[in-house]
Amino acid sequence: ADGTGAAHLYGDADHCDGGADYPVWSPDGTRLALVCYLLEGAHGVATIAVLDLATMERREIVRLAWPEMTDNPPAWSPDGSTIAFDIITWDPTDTKVTSMLVATVPAEGGEIRRLTDPALYAAHPDWSPDGRLIAFNTYDTGNIHGIEQPSNVYTIAPDGTGLRQLSTASTDGKMRLGQPFWSSDGTRIWVSIGRDWEKDSTGQY
User: Fold this and answer.
1) Coil, helix or strand for 11?
2) Which of the four, 5, 27, 49, 188, has the lowest number of CB atoms within 10 Å?
């Protein structure tokens, strides 16, 4: 944390030939979850891997092949047993996103549980400190632009029940809420607020 002792843990030489992104510490600090992009096929493959820092053993727990991908940090449950992530689906031309959903998978690997309706465009999950809820935003600002739909924050239970909309501030696609993050005491959820890309009269962004 003070900038000393830098060490190369993971990267292209470790089979991430398309790039390794979004490293996230496990709650006990012994493992890293990260997204690894592979240059396989015409569109590539996205995986989520867990790296044990004591043994440097890498376990691939999610593999998504086009048209499905993932493009946000994975999120550990407070007890370190489960990882939440989003799944993005692209259209056949690979130019726009057609759906997004939030899913979970055991940190040791296993069955993927898809929690939300793909039509909700759910993304960027974050666990509440007690592990009872997962917050997420809709219409993720990083992958969807030029829309009319509002982008708000929701919560859902890890078993896929109890979907609840928390915010109503976003009423159209121009004002966006994203990247929800729980406070450590679980009383608040922090969000980013932004405006979608817009063109002026000259056609420039």
Assistant:
1) coil
2) 5
